[in-house]
Write a structure and sequence with these properties.
Elements lengths: L31 H11 L16 E4 L4 E5 L2 E4 L3 E4 L4 E4 L11 E4 L2 E5 L12 E5 L1 E4 L2 E5 L3 E2 L6 E5 L4 E3 L2 E6 L20 E2 L2 E5 L4 E3 L12 E5 L4 E6 L2 E3 L2 E5 L2 E6 L6 E4 L3 E2 L7 E5 L1 E4 L2 E4 L2 E3 L15 E4 L2 E3 L7 E5 L1 E4 L3 E4 L3 E4 L2 E4 L5 E4 L4 E4 L1 E4 L3 E4 L2 E4 L6 H4 L8 E3 L5 E4 L2 E9 L5 E5 L2 E21 L4 E18 L3 E4 L3 E3 L7 E12 L2 E3 L9 E10 L3 E3 L4 E12 L3 E3 L8 E10 L12 E3 L2 E5 L1 H5 L9 H4 L16 E5 L3 E3 H14 L3 E3 L3 E3 L8 E3 L21 E7 L11 E4 L9 E11 L9 E5 L2 E4 L11 E6 L5 E3 L2 E6 L2 E5 L9 E11 L2 E5 L2 E10 L3 E5 ...
Parallel strand pairs: 1-6, 2-7, 6-9, 7-10, 8-12, 9-13, 10-14, 12-16, 13-17, 14-18, 16-19, 17-20, 18-21, 19-22, 20-23, 22-25, 23-26, 24-27, 25-29, 26-30, 27-31, 28-29, 28-32, 30-33, 31-34, 32-35, 33-36, 34-37, 35-38, 36-39, 37-40, 38-41, 39-42, 40-43, 41-43, 42-44, 43-45, 44-45, 45-46, 46-47, ...
Antiparallel strand pairs: 1-4, 2-3, 4-5, 11-15, 68-69, 81-85, 93-94, 94-98, 97-98, 99-100, 99-116, 100-101, 101-102, 102-103, 103-104, 104-106, 105-106, 106-107, 106-108, 107-111, 108-110, 109-110, 110-114, 112-113, 114-115, 115-116
Length: 1464
C-alpha cells in the first residue's frame, strides 16, 4: 500500500530558487494564502444586499419579508425603510409609498412589477418602475398581461441614472396566471403567433450585474433567472456582467449591452439549453463566455436563419463578436450542435474548449479564430467566406456519411475551404477527416503549425487552390492526397509533409507539388500520375528533400530535381504511366538517391541524369547492363542502362551508398564510374579484403610509389570508416608520421572520418615527438569504439622500457572554420566511447561531441571557436580554458568540467528541449558540473559565466564531484534521459525546468558573475558547514544574486533553531555577495524572510494553511518538533513534508481539497472499499442459509434421519451513504454444503455446514476509484429444538475473508490485502401459529459477532481493528402449504427488522501517527423482506428465495438463493 510521493511544484519563476531531490520549483509565498482565503469565503455565508449603517435621502431599503408591488400604475407596499436625514436613522416609509426616479433601492425582500389586467371596461395597463439604481439579493418579479398578436402591454424595471446589481436571489419574468387569453402558435397561413407583452430589466446608463463571485472578502452568491413560456424578456445595460447566475428560460431572453464604448456581455456563468431551459437566447453586443455553456444551435450575426423549408432557426443569436476565454485557474467551455457565423468574429481563446458541431463560416469579413492554448472541435466545417485562423488546436471529426450522401456523385468533405476572399492559416494544430481546398474560386490553406488529415483534395475549378506548408516547425501528415485541375502543394521554409497513403495527380491536373525551402522535407508513398495526362504537373524539388517509398507511376519529368540544394530519394519502383518510357525521373541539379530497394526498371533512360549527384547502391549500378556490348574492355565500364549513361557526363558525380564493400569492388566501381561521370565517391563504413575479412586498420596514404596497397586515400573522396583505425603514414611509405593536416593538399584534402588515428611510436632512447593534428576548413571525425570504453582516439606512444608504453599528449587545432567531431551523429547509431589525450584549441571553427561517452584532456575556446555537447552525448573535460566562446550543452547532453584554467572566462551555455505548455512531455537531464570548491581562492572550481537559453530545459550541478545529487533528484522526480509523461502524476509538473537549475553545496562565485533565474540550494540534503568559531558558513560566497530567492524541500535538520523564538535560520550568502530580492519558501507550513543574507524561517499553523486536512494534528507535530524532511527515512514524516510542499504549489481551495480527499480516501481504501462489510455481508448470507435449514415457518414435515443439503447464494448489496458521503457496493456468490441429523424422539436437529465463495465490488460516491475482490470461507455448527409452541435455534460459526483492495487517484495507486476473521453466535426462537389456512410465525433472536480486521503494512500501515457487533432480528413469517401431484408446496413471505448495537464504527489508526479516522460500517436498523417457495416430495426438498434489504444510508440489498436437501 506504499505510495511513493513524487512532489513537483508549479511552473518555475524567473528567479533564484532552491531545489532538492523531491522538489522542483517554487510558488510565491503569497499563493499559500489562497487556500486559507478560499476557506474563509466558503464559510462566510450567502450574499445579502444588507441595510447599510448609514443611508442617503434617496435610499429605500426593502428588507427581508417586505413586499413592494407596482401593478399598472398602482403601488402597494408596507415596511419599506427610508433614511431620516435629520435624525440620521432609518425609519419606516408611509404605506403604499411609491418608488421615485431618484430612489436608490436596496432589496432583500420582494419587488413585484406587473401589468394590470383588464377588468370590466378598464383597459389593460402596463407597468414601468423607474428608479435611480437597484442593488438586490431578494426577489424581483416582472409579470406580463394578456397575450396579443401585437401591442401587448409590457412591464419593466429601469434604473435611470445608476446601475443594477442583482447579487443574488431571484429575477423572474412571469406569465400572469390570471390572463384571460393565452399565447398561441402561428397559424398555417403564417399569421403571427400571440405572445405576451415584452418584459425588461435595464439600466439606462449603467452596467447590469447578475450574481456575485467569491473573493477573499465575500462569498459567492447565485442569482436565479426565470423566463416563463411565451414570455419575451430583456436584460439590458451599458455592459452586462452575468457573473454567477442560473437560468430557467422557457421563453425568449435577450441580454443586451448598449453602452457607447465597446458594449460587452461578460458571461461568466454556466448555461445549458435543455429541459427547463429550452427557450431562445439573444445576446446583443460583444460577448465573452468564461463559464461553461451548451446551446442547441447558434447564429453569430444580426438575425437568425428564417425558419422555412424544414430549416429550423437557431436557438441562440449572438449579435456581436464572440470570445470564449478561460484562465490558467479556470477553464471555459462552449458547446453547440450547430454554429453559423454570418458576421463578426468567433474566437476560442486561451484555456478554453469549444465543441462547435456543424460549422459554417459564410459571411463576408467573418472570422473563426482558435487562439493558442485554446481548443475547438467540429463535426463538419465549411469556410465559404471569411477567415479561419488556428493558433491552438482544431479537430474536425470525420462524420459517417448517410447512405443518400454516400451515393451522391460528389464526395462529402469534413472540412471544406472554398470560395473567394477566404484565408485559412494554421499556426497551431489542425486535425481533420477529409479536407477539400478550393471549389469555384481561389482558396489557400497555409500550415505553419501542424496538420493531420485522413485525406486532402486540392482542387480549383476556375481559380487556384494551394496547400502551403511553411515554417520552421510546420508539418502536414495526410492519409491520401489528390491534386485536381490547378490544385497544387507548396512546401517551403523547412516545412514537412508526410503522405502515408497514395498521392494522385488527376488527368486534368496542371498544378505542381513543389518543394522549395532549405530544410523542407517531404515523404510520399505511392505517387501516381494519370495515364497520358493532359496537364503538366510534377513533383518539383527545387530546394529541400523528397522521399518516395512506394511506386512512382510517372510520365516524362514527373519527378524533377532541379536545385543546388534539392534532393530526392526513390525507394520503390519507377514505372511508366503511359506510352512515354524515358525521362520519368529527371536530375538537372542537386542530388538523386536511389535507395537499396529502388527498382528503376529495364527501359533505357528511364532516369535522365543531366547534372548533379547520383547516389545508388552497387547492385543497382551494376544491374541491367547493355547486353549488346561484346567488347570485354567496354563491358568493364558499363553501368545500368536505365540510367542513360552511354557517354561520359562531366556534370554528374556518383556516390556508391553501400555500407560495406570489398577493396576489389571499390576498384571495379571506380573504373566504371570514372568512365561515365566526373568521379566516384564511396559512403562505405567498412571495407573487406579479398577473403571477406574486414579491415581494422588501413594506411591513410599510399604505402609505396608503385602498385600501392589499398588504402584510405584510394577512396578519393570523403571518408566515413567508423570501425577502421587510420595509420597516418608519410606519402608512399609505411613510416608513421607525427603530423596530420586535414583539408590541405599535402595532408588529407577531403573530410576524414575514422575510428581513431595512429601516429608514430618512439623507442625508449629517442624521446617522444608530440603528434599534431590540424583541421583546416574541413571535418575530422573520430568515431571512437563501440566496445572499448578506454579507446584512445589519437594513438601516439612512447616506450618507457622495452615492453611498456604510454600515451603521448597531442594537440588538435581547428581553424578556418573547420569542424572536429567525436562520436557518430547518425540517427539511431549506437553509443561510442573514447579518450582523447589532447589539448584541443578552437582557433576558428567548432567541436561537436555526439552520442557517446568521451573524455578530453583540455579544451580552449575562443571568440571564433565554440564547442557543443549534443543530444545523448556525455563529455568530461579535464580542463576548460579560453577567453571567449562557449561550450553549449544541448538536448539531454552532459558536460562535466573537472577544473578551470586560472584567470579564464570560458563560458558554458545551457540550451535544451523547449517545454511547450500545450504538450505534456519535455526533455530533461542536461547539465554542466564543476568539482567541489576546496577554498575561496580555488580558481579551478570558481563558477564562471554560465548562461541559459530562455524557455529551455536545463540542469546545472556545481559543488559536487559526482552525479549523485542530480541522479537522485531526477530519480525521485521520475525524470529520465528521455521523455517524461506528466499525465501519470499531477504533481509531476516538469515545466519548472524552464530555468537553469543550480544544485549547490559549497560554491565560490566569480565577482563578475550574476546568478539570476538559477535554482541554488538543496536544502533537504545540505548539512551546513561551520567555520572555526562554530558559526554557519555561507553556502554561496561572492558574486551577485538577484531576484526572488527560493528555499525548496527545507528540512528541519538544515536549519539552526532558536529555542526562545522558535525560528529557524540558515546563512545563504557572505558579506562579499551582492544580493537583492526577497525569499520564497517552497512549503505551505513554512514562511520566511531574508535578513543580511540569512534566511529566517517560521512554522505556520496547519489548520490555517490546510483547513480540514485529516492529518493536520500530525502535520503540526512534525513541524513544531522540527522533524520535517522530505527525504526522511521515516515514511510518514517524508510523506507529510512532501504533501505540505505540494500544497504550496496549489492555487485554489478546490485543488487542495481534491488532493486532501485523494490522500484520505487512498489511505483509508480498505474501509471505503468495503473490506469490513464484505466480512459482515458474507457472514449474513451464511447465517441465513443455516436459518433456512432450522426454521419451521414453512410448515413442511421434517423426517428422522440424516439430511445432506446444499445452498447456492448470490447477493448484490449496496449502501451508498453508509460511510458518510460515500458507501460501497458488493456482489457475493457462494455455496453452502451442510449435513445434519434429526432425532425424532427429541424433535431436534444437530448439524454442521461449510461455505466457500467469492465476490467483487468497491466504493460508491468517492472521488477515488476503489475496487474490492473478495474471497471467503466459513464453518458453523447449528441446531434447533422444536416444542409444541416454540422452535428454538442456535448456531456457532467462524468466517474468514480476504479482500484484495486496489485504488487509483491523483495521489497514485494503492493496494492492500485485507484479512478479516468473524466469530459469531446466534440464538433465536419462533412461535408458529395458524390463522385460517395461513401459517403465521413471529420470530426473534440475538446475534453476537466479533470481527477482527488485520492491520496493513506500508506507508499508511494501520493497527488491527476489532468490532463487537450485536444484532436483534425481529420479524414475522407468513406461509401456506398445499399438495399437488404428490408435491408439498410451501410459499413463504417474511418481513423483518434487524437493529444493531455495539461497535458500529471502523477505526483506522495509522502506524507512527496519532490520527485516527472513524468510519461507520454497520447499519442501525435495516429492514428485510423475503419471498420464497419450498417444494417437498419423498426424501427431496427444493427451495428458492429472494430477499430485498433496505434501510438508511441508501441501503439496498438483493439476495437470491436456491437450495436442495435429501434425507436418508
Amino acid at each position: 500500500m506504499n505510495k511513493s510521493f513524487k512532489v513537483v511544484f508549479s511552473k518555475a519563476r524567473s528567479a533564484l530558487m532552491v531545489v532538492n531531490e523531491a522538489t522542483s520549483s517554487i510558488q510565491a509565498k503569497g499563493t499559500k494564502t489562497v487556500i486559507a482565503a478560499a476557506a474563509a469565503a466558503m464559510i462566510a455565508g450567502g450574499a445579502v444586499a444588507a441595510q447599510p449603517d448609514k443611508g442617503a435621502a434617496t435610499d429605500v431599503y426593502i428588507g427581508t419579508g417586505v413586499v413592494h408591488s407596482l401593478t399598472g400604475d398602482a403601488t402597494t407596499s408596507k415596511g419599506n425603510q427610508i433614511w431620516d436625514t435629520t435624525k440620521q436613522v432609518w425609519k419606516t416609509a408611509a404605506q403604499d409609498a411609491k418608488l421615485e426616479r431618484t430612489s436608490t433601492v436596496i432589496l432583500d425582500g420582494t419587488l413585484n412589477v406587473g401589468v394590470q389586467l383588464k377588468e370590466g371596461g378598464t383597459a389593460e395597463a402596463g407597468a414601468e418602475l423607474s428608479i435611480a439604481s437597484l442593488k438586490s439579493t431578494g426577489i424581483v418579479n416582472i409579470t406580463a398581461g394578456n397575450a396579443a398578436a401585437t401591442g401587448a402591454s409590457g412591464a419593466a424595471v429601469k434604473a435611470i441614472t445608476g446601475k443594477v446589481d442583482l447579487l443574488g436571489g431571484e429575477l423572474n419574468f412571469l406569465a400572469n396566471p390570471n390572463a384571460t387569453t393565452k399565447a398561441a402558435a402561428a397559424s398555417a397561413g403564417g399569421t403571427q403567433a400571440k405572445t405576451y407583452g415584452a418584459l425588461s430589466l435595464e439600466s439606462t446608463t449603467g452596467n447590469v450585474t447578475l450574481g456575485q463571485a467569491a473573493t477573499t472578502n465575500q462569498a459567492a452568491s447565485v442569482l436565479a433567472v426565470k423566463v416563463d413560456k411565451d414570455i419575451s424578456a430583456t436584460i439590458k445595460g451599458a455592459n452586462v456582467n452575468v457573473t454567477n447566475a442560473t437560468f430557467a428560460n422557457e421563453g425568449a431572453l435577450t441580454i443586451q449591452a448598449s453602452g457607447q464604448s465597446n458594449p460587452t456581455v461578460k458571461f461568466a456563468s454556466d448555461y445549458t439549453q435543455g429541459t427547463g431551459n429550452s427557450g431562445k437566447l439573444d445576446v446583443i453586443g460583444a460577448s465573452e463566455f468564461t463559464g461553461n455553456v451548451k446551446f442547441d444551435s447558434v447564429m453569430v450575426g444580426t438575425a437568425r436563419t428564417t425558419a422555412a423549408n424544414n430549416v429550423v432557426s437557431e436557438s441562440v443569436l449572438l449579435n456581436g463578436n464572440v470570445t470564449v476565454q478561460g484562465t490558467d485557474k479556470k477553464a471555459a467551455s462552449f458547446a453547440t450542435g450547430k454554429l453559423n457565423i454570418m458576421s463578426g468574429t468567433f474566437t476560442v481563446g486561451g484555456y478554453a474548449t469549444a465543441d462547435l458541431g456543424e460549422v459554417a463560416v459564410s459571411g463576408a469579413d467573418t472570422s473563426l479564430v482558435v487562439n493558442a492554448s485554446g481548443a475547438a472541435t467540429a463535426s463538419k466545417m465549411t469556410v465559404s467566406k471569411g477567415k479561419l485562423t488556428v493558433a491552438g488546436d482544431l479537430t474536425v471529426n470525420k462524420a459517417a456519411d448517410t447512405p443518400a450522401v454516400a451515393a451522391a456523385t460528389d464526395p462529402v468533405y469534413d472540412l471544406t475551404i472554398g470560395t473567394t476572399g477566404n484565408t485559412v492559416s494554421v499556426s497551431g494544430s489542425l486535425t481533420a477527416g477529409s479536407v477539400l481546398i478550393g471549389t469555384a474560386a481561389n482558396a489557400d490553406l497555409t500550415v505553419s503549425g501542424t496538420m493531420q488529415a485522413d485525406s486532402v483534395t486540392v482542387q480549383a475549378d476556375t481559380g487556384a487552390a494551394t496547400l502551403i506548408v511553411s515554417g520552421a516547425k510546420s508539418s502536414a501528415t495526410i492519409g491520401a492526397l489528390n491534386l485536381n485541375k490547378s490544385g497544387k502543394v507548396s512546401v517551403v521554409d523547412s516545412g514537412a509533409v508526410v503522405v502515408t497513403g497514395d498521392t494522385v495527380f488527376a488527368k486534368d491536373s496542371t498544378g505542381d507539388f513543389t518543394v522549395n525551402g532549405t530544410g523542407a522535407k517531404v515523404s510520399l508513398q505511392n505517387v501516381t500520375f494519370a495515364k497520358d495526362a493532359t496537364g503538366a504537373s510534377k513533383v518539383n524539388v527545387q530546394s529541400g528533400s523528397v522521399t518516395i517509398d512506394g511506386t512512382l507511376t510517372a510520365n516524362s519529368g514527373s519527378l524533377t530535381i532541379a536545385g543546388a540544394t534539392a534532393a530526392a530519394t526513390v525507394n520503390g519502383k519507377v514505372v511508366a504511366a503511359g506510352s512515354t518510357k524515358t525521362g520519368l525521373v529527371e536530375l538537372t541539379q542537386g542530388t538523386l538517391t536511389l535507395g537499396s530497394t529502388a527498382d528503376i526498371g529495364t527501359e533505357t533512360g528511364a532516369v535522365k541524369l543531366t547534372a548533379g549527384k547520383l547516389e545508388a547502391a552497387s547492385a543497382l549500378l551494376l544491374a541491367n547492363q547493355d547486353s549488346t556490348v561484346t567488347d570485354e574492355a567496354a563491358k568493364k565500364k558499363l553501368l545500368n542502362k536505365a540510367l542513360g549513361l552511354s557517354l561520359k557526363n562531366a556534370n554528374l558525380s556518383i556516390t556508391v551508398t553501400d555500407e560495406k564493400l570489398s577493396s576489389d569492388q571499390i576498384v571495379d566501381l571506380q573504373t566504371r564510374i570514372n568512365d561515365k561521370a566526373s568521379g566516384a565517391a564511396f559512403a562505405v563504413t567498412a571495407i573487406t579484403d579479398s577473403t571477406g575479412k574486414e579491415y581494422t586498420e588501413l594506411f591513410l596514404r599510399d604505402d609505396k610509389a608503385t602498385s600501392p596497397s589499398f588504402n584510405i586515400s584510394t577512396l578519393a573522396g570523403d571518408v566515413h570508416l567508423k570501425n577502421i583505425d587510420a595509420k597516418v603514414n608519410t606519402d608512399k611509405s609505411t613510416t608513421l608520421a607525427s603530423v596530420l593536416n586535414v583539408g590541405v593538399a599535402d595532408g588529407f584534402a577531403h573530410n576524414l572520418g575514422v575510428q581513431s588515428l595512429i601516429f608514430e611510436t618512439t623507442a625508449p632512447s629517442t624521446g617522444a615527438t608530440n603528434a599534431n593534428v590540424t583541421v583546416d576548413g574541413k571535418m575530422l571525425t573520430l568515431y571512437g569504439s563501440l566496445t572499448d570504453t578506454a579507446k584512445e582516439l589519437i594513438q601516439a606512444y612512447e616506450y618507457t622500457d622495452t615492453t611498456s608504453k604510454k600515451v603521448v599528449p597531442t594537440a588538435v587545432t581547428v581553424k578556418t572554420g573547420g569542424t572536429f567531431v567525436l562520436g557518430d551523429d547518425t540517427a539511431g547509431a549506437a553509443q561510442r566511447y573514447g579518450n582523447l589525450n589532447a589539448e584541443v584549441t578552437l582557433t576558428s571553427g567548432s567541436m561537436t561531441v555526439n552520442n557517446g561517452v568521451f573524455t578530453v584532456k583540455s579544451l580552449k575556446t575562443t571568440p571564433q571557436g565554440s564547442a557543443t555537447v549534443a543530444e545523448n552525448a556525455n563529455l568530461t573535460l579535464k580542463s576548460l580554458a579560453g577567453e571567449g566562446g562557449a561550450v553549449t550543452v544541448a538536448g539531454n547532453g552532459v558536460l562535466t568540467v573537472e577544473s578551470r584554467a586560472a584567470a579564464v572566462n570560458a563560458g558554458v551555455t545551457l540550451t535544451g528541449s523547449h517545454v511547450d505548455d500545450k504538450h505534456t512531455k519535455a526533455k530533461v537531464a542536461k547539465y554542466f558540473r564543476l568539482a567541489e570548491a576546496t577554498s575561496k581562492t580555488d580558481a579551478a572550481t570558481t563558477l564562471g559565466t554560465v548562461t541559459r537559453t530562455a524557455g529551455t530545459a536545463t540542469q546545472l550541478v556545481v559543488g559536487t564531484a559526482d552525479d549523485s545529487v542530480l541522479t537522485k533528484f531526477m530519480a525521485d522526480n521520475q525524470y529520465t534521459y528521455d521523455y517524461v509523461d506528466v499525465t501519470a502524476d499531477p504533481f509531476s509538473d516538469i515545466k519548472h525546468v524552464d530555468s537553469a537549475t543550480l544544485i549547490a553545496t559549497n560554491v565560490n562565485v566569480a565577482a563578475s558573475t550574476e546568478m539570476t533565474g538559477l535554482t541554488v540550494f538543496d536544502m533537504g540534503s545540505i548539512v551546513v558547514e561551520k567555520d572555526q568559531l562554530g558559526n554557519n558558513k555561507a553556502i554561496v560566497r561572492g558574486g551577485t544574486v538577484s531576484g526572488e530567492i527560493g528555499l525548496a524541500n527545507v528540512s528541519g535538520k538544515s536549519l539552526t533553531w532558536d529555542a526562545k523564538t522558535g525560528l529557524g535560520s540558515v546563512q545563504l550568502f557572505d558579506g562579499t555577495t551582492t544580493q537583492t530580492g526577497g525569499i520564497t519558501i517552497g512549503d505551505a507550513m513554512l514562511d520566511g524572510t531574508l535578513v543580511n543574507g540569512e534566511a529566517v524561517v517560521k512554522v505556520q499553523n496547519a489548520e490555517e494553511v490546510m483547513p480540514g486536512f485529516f492529518l493536520n494534528k500530525d502535520m503540526q507535530r512534525i513541524y513544531d518538533e522540527h522533524l520535517f524532511d522530505a527525504a526522511s527515512s521515516d515514511a510518514q514524516i517524508a510523506m507529510l513534508t512532501q504533501f505540505s510542499q505540494a500544497v504550496n504549489g496549489m492555487t485554489s481551495m478546490g485543488e487542495f481539497k481534491a488532493a486532501s480527499q485523494a490522500l484520505e480516501e487512498g489511505s483509508n481504501s480498505a474501509v471505503l472499499g468495503g473490506a469490513y462489510n464484505a466480512a459482515l455481508d458474507a457472514g449474513e448470507q451464511f447465517n441465513k442459509a443455516l436459518d433456512r435449514r432450522m426454521t419451521v415457518a414453512n410448515g413442511l414435515n421434517r423426517a428422522e434421519g440424516f439430511t445432506l443439503w446444499a445452498d447456492v447464494i448470490g447477493t448484490s448489496n449496496q449502501a451508498k451513504k453508509l460511510y458518510g458521503n460515500s458507501g460501497y457496493d458488493l456482489d457475493l456468490y457462494g455455496g453452502v454444503l451442510g449435513g445434519d441429523y434429526t432425532f425424532a424422539q427429541y424433535d431436534a436437529t444437530l448439524g454442521a455446514a461449510l461455505t466457500v465463495g467469492t465476490g467483487s465490488g468497491g466504493s460508491k460516491g468517492t472521488a477515488t476509484s476503489i475496487d474490492n475482490d473478495v474471497d471467503f470461507v466459513g464453518f458453523s455448527v447449528y441446531g434447533n429444538k422444536r416444542c409444541p409452541i416454540v422452535n428454538s435455534k442456535f448456531d456457532l460459526g467462524y468466517m474468514q475473508t480476504k479482500s484484495d483492495i486496489s485504488a487509483a487517484n491523483s495521489m497514485g495507486n494503492w493496494s492492500s490485502d485485507v484479512k478479516a476473521k468473524a466469530f459469531t453466535f446466534g440464538f433465536g426462537v419462533e412461535l408458529p401459529t395458524t390463522v385460517g389456512i395461513v401459517n403465521v410465525t413471529p420470530h426473534a433472536g440475538i446475534r453476537y459477532t466479533r470481527l477482527d480486521v488485520e492491520g496493513r503494512d506500508g506507508l499508511f500501515g494501520t493497527d488491527d481493528d476489532k468490532l463487537n457487533v450485536f444484532q436483534a432480528p425481529l420479524g414475522v413469517t407468513f406461509s401456506g402449504a398445499f399438495e399437488t401431484s404428490g408435491w408439498n408446496l410451501a410459499p413463504t413471505f417474511d418481513l423483518s427488522v434487524v437493529p444493531a448495537f455495539g461497535d458500529k464504527d471502523a477505526t483506522t489508526k495509522y502506524n507512527g501517527l496519532t490520527t485516527e479516522v472513524i468510519t461507520r460500517v454497520v447499519d442501525s436498523s435495516p429492514v428485510q423482506a423475503t419471498l420464497g417457495l419450498s417444494a417437498q416430495k419423498d426424501a427431496f426438498t427444493f427451495g428458492i428465495n429472494y430477499t430485498l434489504g433496505a434501510g438508511s444510508d441508501e441501503r439496498q440489498n438483493h439476495s437470491f438463493n436456491a437450495n436442495v436437501r435429501y434425507t436418508f
